[in-house]
């Protein structure tokens, strides 16, 4: 029987999280996707996530299988083009970032389980909606996002850089 659960990452987990992120960078590069190819997310980003207690790891049979950050706001989402966020303009939300699965666990639909766990956490923290974005060329992530129930809302820019366009999605918790 497979036992899995989501928990906050600890400082001791940073090497494993970093290894998963580096593997995801290689995976994206092999697909010709330039997402995460410029040094982001860096080790310092991962350390900050853990320090701020927003990094979560998916544990499967005692091993770290995946990682994701769950923030409570993203300034990059303040401006959206080609569409709009649904609901009140000042709505509180969580944002899923830096989601990645270990190559040892890819293909087992565990990313869906991780997103489901992040939905539960968001709900428990009192949020009614969750947002996420991905690179326009990252078709696998787009599939995962829409399969998980997110609805496409428009495009956002990372750090106001017109070369860093991302597709933005939203999910409402009931």
TrEMBL record:
- N-acetyltransferase domain location is 4-174
- Annotated coiled-coil segments of the chain: none
Q: What is this protein called?
A: Acetyltransferase (GNAT) domain-containing protein
Q: Which organism is it from?
A: Pediococcus ethanolidurans
């Amino acid at each position: 029987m497979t036992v899995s659960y989501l928990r906050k990452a600890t400082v001791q987990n940073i090497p494993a999280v970093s290894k998963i992120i580096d593997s995801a960078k290689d995976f994206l590069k092999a697909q010709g996707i330039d997402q995460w190819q410029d040094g982001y997310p860096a080790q310092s980003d991962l350390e900050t996530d853990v320090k701020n207690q927003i990094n979560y790891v998916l544990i499967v049979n005692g091993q770290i299988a995946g990682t994701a950050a769950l923030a409570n706001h993203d300034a990059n989402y303040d401006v959206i083009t080609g569409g709009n966020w649904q609901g009140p303009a000042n709505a509180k939300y969580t944002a899923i970032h830096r989601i990645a699965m270990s190559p040892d666990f890819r293909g087992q639909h565990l990313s869906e389980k991780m997103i489901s766990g992040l939905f539960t956490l968001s709900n428990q923290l009192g949020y009614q909606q969750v947002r996420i974005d991905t690179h326009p060329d990252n078709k696998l992530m787009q599939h995962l996002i829409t399969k998980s129930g997110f609805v496409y809302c428009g495009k956002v820019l990372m750090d106001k850089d017109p070369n860093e366009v991302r597709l933005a999605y939203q999910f409402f918790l009931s």
